[in-house]
Amino acid sequence: MLVALSIRDIVLIDRLDLEFAAGMSVLTGETGAGKSILLDSLSLALGARGDADLVRHGEAQGQVTAVFDVAADHPVRMFLRENDVDDDGDIILRRIQTSDGRTRAFVNDQPVSAGLLRQAGALLVEIHGQHDDRALVDPESHRALIDVFGGLTAEAEAVAQAFATYRAADKAVTDHEKRIEAARNEADFLRAAVDELSALKPETGEEEQLAARRTDMMAVEKIAGDLNEAFETLNGTASPIPELASLLRRLERKADQVPNLLGQPVRTLAEAMDLLEETRGGLESALRETEYDPRELEAVEERLFALRAASRKFSVPVDELSALCARMSGDLADLDAGEDKLAALVSAAGKARAEYDKKAASLSDKRRKTAKALEKAVEMELPDLKLERAKFIVEVESNPENRSRSGIDQLEFHVQTNPGTKPGPMMKVASGGELSRFLLALKVSLADKGSAPTLVFDEIDTGVGGAVAEAIGLRLARLAGSVQVLTVTHAPQVAARAAGHFLIAKEATRKDRVATRVQRIDEDHRSEEIARMLAGSVITEEARAAARRLLTAAE
NCBIfam families attached here (predicted)? Predict the structure, then answer.
């Protein structure tokens, strides 16, 4: 339920903090005091469309905060969790309206979209009035209310699940038929492609491995050429080593004769000969280590080029050739064994459809019985609401071929306001005052079923008085036994039934400014306010006595 409402700088309200309790609360006051502003503010916090004109003149922004105390298993908590919004403790909806037309929305101080705020608000509060453009407009809500009233929610969910199963089975048939047709049109191409790819046997990652092996082998081939040339220079027929060796021997013989002259050159030449021999040995060892088979390089290149050619031909990366082959093989298998599989899918779809039809037909029968029960319950409320000649009708149209997740029924609330007139949709046929009373009768009949935890009624007693206003007040009080009820009213008979009473008035704040003030009033002030509602501007003792009688009767 709504436990607190805080308003800052909205139209005539500069600062307002209200606390609400369970049961029925009424808001009364002179015409123009600001009752509609209060409801507009609440609507803004619930996600209604923003408007720059709502911001108090001269201020940069206005703000409304609504605090709700709801049970741990209330649907709004699950909704918030599904949207990654914290739902611990109270649920706090806050909306900021700026003077340039922009708005910002928050749930539990977490920024959210206006759409999410509106969805959360709809789970917490319903606002109804003579010119209601939200409540019960969508026939989908009528069907949901019938299900809730008849305790059919679980069966409706089972129908929805059966519909999902049926649609999935039906889609499987359609998809398989398309695959068979496509495979049949491309059968020759598919067989040739599968034969080619099966012979090629591509493997994932093979291209990368082959490319790396080819690069390594080509690098080795280039190095091997240089090594061969160097080795041939030192070891071939043109090698300078034998001639240098002969020269070294001659010099060694002559060195004994002139050691001071040839000793150093002979030693240096001997060291050079040793280094050349070492170099020749190293080159020979390197050649042995870089030996490779040119035929292997050729085979690697042929394999790599074949894979890349297939990639270009089939317009897929090399790594996807294997998966493509599997898909094409599957398409051929579907073509070869498609009729058997299709027959199985058609059979499964038929069983799913039959199961759905069975559950939907059962639900439809129960909805028709529930519709009659709701008609009787609502019509029992109508005489006291001065609608004794009116009828409430739940129009049910069922079409077994019109399958949907909600079943095979189209439901809509119709009314006949006078004998001899044509029944029609409640939102179109009933006048403003009649609509509000039909709505009240419907809400009382549903009690706490299918209702938000807080119901707001905006002047639904306009244009009625006496016994009808008394009946409205009695039913609002009865409804408040199940849900929280907030009512803006001009009827003293309704105000007398409230557990909480808020008086709305204008107050001058300075010479050129006024502000709307709201205060909770006690029993003595309630009696005086109800007397004012009875008598008008001049409150007489008779009016005060009548007010006391109304309060006593209500108690």
Answer: recN (TIGR00634)
